[in-house]
Amino acid sequence: MLAKRIIPCLDIKDGRTVKGTNFVQLRDAGDPVELAMRYCTEGADELVFLDITATVDKRKTLSELVRNIATHINIPFTVGGGINTVDDVSVLMEHGADKISVNTSAVKTPQLVSDLARNFGSQCVVVAIDIKLFDGVWKVVTHGGRNATDLIATEWAKRVTDLGAGEILLTSMENDGTKSGFAIDITRQISQALPIPVIASGGAGTMSHFKEVFETGAADAALAASIFHFGEIEIGALKNYLKANHISVRL
């Protein structure tokens, strides 16, 4: 069995790490380079960097900050936010990104997923899917959860997989920042429907939430932010807990 991955997420605004609830009410969570180095030491499997206002503000991800983080870590590094073209990705790869994450731009131009997979390989292309419940149906939202779409979450996940995505980063906007647990049912549904890995995101609050999303939610990886940033859960301790519960992790 492949080891389950633990992935801290750095949500970046104006060069600082921030964290909110349901993508709003943001508060400062520290220097992204310092946090990245700490997570590397603690045993994180990968790191995700999302410039959360890049799409909204229509500006490019902070490539110099990406370079600064990349030079200080030795784990796979995914970067997202404001990526609209193959050239955008080339710049980020040159600055040290191992993978890139697209969300709003993929919804707007699905062909972008195919173009990126063809140019950089599927293993470099993560499609982030932010989802919200509308009358009991999980649908895709964009622009950091601000804009609703008519896309059904599971159908969209299957489509981007067919287009060449190598991984899905699935974030429940209902759960994000609440610390009440991941959206287990939809995570399981999408994980079981796809041949590619699914990263669960949104709602982690306790170690048992990670156990649940791996066992019941069938996720391949789990991502969290504030509980790691503010020291509520230490990654090494989390991995020891998961291993003690017979979940395969890299120690």
What does this structure look like?
- The chain is of the alpha/beta class and 251 residues long.
- It has one domain: Aldolase class I (TIM Barrel), CATH 3.20.20.
- The chain contains 10 helices and 12 strands.
- It has helices spanning 32-42, 63-70, 86-94, 104-108, 111-120, 153-163, 184-193, 207-215, 226-229, 235-244; strands at residues 5-13, 16-21, 24-30, 47-51, 77-80, 99-102, 125-134, 137-142, 147-152, 167-172, 198-201, 221-224.
- Strands 1-4-5-6-7-10-11-12 form an 8-stranded parallel beta barrel, surrounded by 6 helices.
- It is globular.
- The model has no long low-confidence stretch (mean pLDDT 91).
List keywords for this structure.
12 strands, single chain, alpha/beta, 10 helices, TIM Barrel, about 250 residues
Order of helices and strands: EEEHEHEHEHHEEEHEHEHEHH
CATH architecture: Alpha-Beta Barrel
Strand content: 25-35%
Distance between the termini: 15 Å
How many beta-strand segments?
12
Query: In CATH, what is the class?
Result: Alpha Beta
- Read across the widest sheet, the strand sequence of neighbours is 1-4-5-6-7-10-11-12
Radius of gyration: 16 Å
Poorly predicted runs are none
The helical percent reads: 25-40%
Overall number of domains: 1
Task: Figure out the total of helices.
Answer: 10
Determine the mean pLDDT.
91
Q: Report the CATH superfamily.
A: Aldolase class I
Approximate shape: globular
